Amino acid sequence: MDDSLRPPSFQPAGDVEELSFGGSVRPGRTPRSSFDDFDAGNGDNPNNPKRSHLWVRVVVGLVTAALLASGGGWTWWMWDTRWRPIDVTVDSGTGAETVRTHVGVTVDVLLERNGSFGRMPGRLLAIDGSELKADGGGSVKVTVDGTDVPHGLWSDTVVPEHAAVTVANGDDVTEEHTVRHDTVAFGTDDVDLTGVIQRFRQAGRNGEREVWVGKESGIEVDKGLTEQPVEMIVESVTPRPAGRKVIALTFDDGPSQYSAPVLDVLKEKKVKATFFDLGEQSLAWPDAEKRMVAEGHQVASHSNTHPNMPDLDADALRAEITDGFANLKAASGVETTAFRSPYGAFGVKQWEAAGDLIGMNVLWDIDTRDWSMPGANAIHDAVMKDAHNGAIVLMHDGGGDRSQTVEALPRIIDDLRKQGYEFVTIDQLIKLSGK
Ligand SMILES: [Zn+2]
Questions:
Q1: Any stretches that span the bilayer, and where are they (predicted)?
Q2: Hey, what domains does the chain have and what are their CATH numbers?
């Protein structure tokens, strides 16, 4: 090598072993160089000091060079894979912007250093849509070069140089829920018990409602009917046949020994009436029952044993009605669903429980109170005082001493007839009224 090309540090300085660092030039050999200090344990061989120092210095130099070389490589590698600035394009919903980051950046780091570019995770919503947690929903949504990067892959996904990144708000997530089905009781608004004759038109049926219950919030949301309830319908009829002057005589609690005298009067006066008979009495007086039918009267049921129906549970109520009709049929041969509840007592609950068993519950317009034995005149006067077209008159041919009823009956019929009344059965009354 031409000495003129050498850097100053390599100019001969007298001693071949001299090493130079950082361009400094040692002015001459010194007995103990700084490197000698490294060899303090085994150097300074008195027999060959120069040779010993030489080897040490060569090894140290080689190691240093290797370190520097490898250090440079590491630096370069870090530069190329970790530190080198790169640009990516980020669109967070307000237009693309160029973002300076570094090579090898992962999605999670890019978002963390840039505040997720202003985007937010979705909310966790309660089942009713109210907010349970502001950030409990889906994570911020990221795509890199058109590919979705799920949250779980953010830390493993490197964003390439010049990548097109989109960042969007996370989706709201609604809490999980359980589904419950509640019974919706059918309505009774269409149960009209204001009329003198009440007829069962439609059985009620319960519906069903679906309710969602939030698993976290416990909030309930009505999702509406899954099965529509069916209203119970009982209609009321108060017959007033147009252009007529009719009246219906009715006799309860029989048959008994007073049925025959009553039937005798009716036969003599050529009047048709209606008998609301007890099932057990019908069985006890089957001849009276058959005579009523034979002579053109209407027979109907007044229950089997005359209980107060509201005191009965549903099963007993139904049994009373069913047995009453069955015994009436056994005694009279007549199958009917015409009914008068004892004391007239038959409310919404009874209609719910047994409305399907009866076609109608027949009440009355005129109560003679003959059962209290007020005297034949009082019974007669009670009818005449309130007589009107379509009236239903309540009397009794059973349940006690009905001699006053038998006594009053001929005059009641005669006086009504004088006023122009015709006598009809309940079925005839309903038919005449067109209902
Ligand atoms: Zn009665």
A1: 54-79
A2: 1-30 (no CATH), 32-83 (no CATH), 85-174 (3.10.20.30), 177-236 (2.20.230.10), 238-432 (3.20.20.370)
What DSSP assignment string belongs to 304-348?
Answer: SS---GGGS-HHHHHHHHHHHHHHHHHHH-----EE--GGG---H
User: How far, in Å, from the CA of 421 to the mean position of ligand 1?
Assistant: 26
Of 39, 53, 177, 252, the catalytic one is 252
252 catalytic? Reply is yes
User: What is the pLDDT confidence band of residue 49, given thresholds at 50, 70 and 90?
Assistant: low
Task: Show the DSSP H helices in 149-295 as ranges.
Answer: 259-269, 279-284, 286-294
SS3 37: helix
| Dist CA 103 CA 110 (whole Å) | 11
Q: What local confidence, expressed as pLDDT, does residue 37 receive? A: 43
Between the CA of 385 and the centroid of ligand 1 the distance, in Å, is 23
Q: Which residues surround the ion ligand 1 when the cut-off is CB under 5 Å? A: 252-253, 342
CB 299 within 8 A of CB 332: yes
Q: Are 17 and 53 in contact (CB under 8 A)?
A: yes
Instruction: Note the pLDDT tens digit of each residue in 252-306.
Output: 999 999 999 999 999 999 999 999 999 999 999 999 999 999 999 999 999 999 9
Find the catalytic residue in 253, 302, 396, 397: 396
Task: Report the separation in Å between the CA atom of 110 and the middle of ligand 1, taken as the mean of its atom positions.
Answer: 92
Told to judge if 53 belongs to the known catalytic residues of this protein, a careful annotator would answer: no
Distance 41 CA to ligand 1 centre (A): 133
Of the candidates 392, 376, 375, 372, the one whose C-alpha atom is nearest the C-alpha of residue 276 is 392
Which of 397, 409, 163 shows the shortest CA–CA distance to 281? Answer: 397
Strand 274-277 versus strand 246-252 pairing type: parallel
**Whether the bond into 255 is cis, omega within 30 of 0:** yes
Parallel, antiparallel or unpaired: strands 338-339 and 360-362: parallel
Report the b/e string of 229-240 with b at 16+ CB within 10 A: bebbbbbbbebe
Give me ligand 1 centre to Cα 77, in Å: 110
Ligand 1 centroid vs 371 CA: distance in angstroms?
9
